[in-house]
Amino acid sequence: MKCLKFESFDKTIIQCYLWDEVKTPKGIVQIVHGMAEHARRYDDFAKFLNGNGFIVWADDHRAHGETETKETIGYHDGNIYLDSVKDEIAMTRYLKERYNLPVVVVGHSYGSFMTQRYIELCNEACGVILSGSACMKGIMIDFGGLIAKIQAAFIKKSKPAKLLDKLSFGGYNKPFASEGTNFGWLSRDKEQVAKYEADEQCGYVMSIAFFEYFLNGLRRAYFKRNLNQINKKLPIAIFSGDRDPVGGNGKLVAKLYSQYKKLGIENLSFKLYPEARHEILNETNNKEVYADFLATIEDFIAKHKKAEEEKAEQTRIAIEAEKAAAKAAEKATAEAEKAQSEESKAE
User: What CATH number does domain 2-138+184-193+221-309 carry, 3.20.20.410, 3.10.310.10, 3.40.50.1820, 3.30.300.20?
Assistant: First the structure.
């Protein structure tokens, strides 16, 4: 894993990570991590992808990880949500230019909600995986966004949003409270949960500003005019645990699938893992999840390659047709000139 500094669209420096020890890479996987965590948690998955021929890139988003300091973590100036989405777009463009390879975006949790907006704002990825996601439109998002706006107007925006955090996540752990941890809802793997709890860059309360921009930005992501910007040919795969409270134990995940289906997305898939919780890449069945993600990524890359080959062939045929037309026109002109010359001589 290499640590890199990326200068984003507005000159903000984002902490990034690159796993590129791949001899003959087939493509790039861009990981977009979740809320109150960081990209280094995906090291094992990234190495797995390296071993299967994929370069991996990930970043610590604004208000997260090493992009911030101990004093600023949870907060960043500006529109944290939208600017973070724009960061991902800038990174995809950078990766495509640097490696000349197709990019698959894998967004988890908050990262999946960023990815939902990402696919409305650009057409840079050749496919996306939404992990631990949901369709979050409705009264709860509207209500949360309103509270965040009110708090932002009267309280310092950089302060931890304890009320909003409780309203958003307070009930998630209730079904797992007997396990003696506040984060049992993340995974059945107790070791993974313990690692999360011990990590000072995980599980902290995000700022009022974060919730203000995230909730109101996500609400806009479900506006019809924005959804209609999604490329209908873009492959989208949705994966979640059926005991993930973020996805409403599967209900809000199915709602997300239905939304994209009605929108006319041509290549759309959806899978729920029985008994799995929120962090499916860190679940007890993560080998199954790794294999499913890999198969999906390889399918996206293969479809992209085929589409590019078909496009190249169409371009070749068009060029050949243009050349043939030009040659025919040149021949017709020459014949017309010859006929005219012969007529002149006859006169």
Answer: 3.40.50.1820
